[in-house]
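Let's see one such:

===
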Amino acid sequence: MIAEMRLSAVSVSYFDRQAQCVVNLYIHSLVGDEMGFLRRLFGLERTSIRLAPGRGWIVPVVGESHYQDALRVLHQENGGEDDDAKVAATLVPEDDNALDPDAVRIEVESTTVGYLSQEMALQYREALGERIGACSAKIVGGFERYDGSTAYYGGKLNLAWPPRMN
């Protein structure tokens, strides 16, 4: 299936990961969301846009505690053994979110890893419209703490605030 054709980011340079993001955006537009079939049927395909970077990876991903297994795997696959893993992320307006109709889902390699905060989601939702946004991101955490436990994984996005397109 097309969703299984996801490219592996193992030993791929950062710039190759940016190109991979474009491929993932295309795959997402084909099979990624529940409404994808209807969007294609009625010619309402989501387009993608590159979002302007900010001053580093300072925009936090929220809700990542629900996606620890996915973040761990992505961190390991993208070379984050002893350091943060640089990855390409997509911002997907989530129209059918029962808790927040303005939610913006964050995906890495077509895998949900969290959401934008409600405040940021409102602004980015307005800027994106029905498009999907692309930006660089880091997966952080997973290191061993002083007490022997493992730190939770999290995500940081490199996005401009207020939102701008590249």
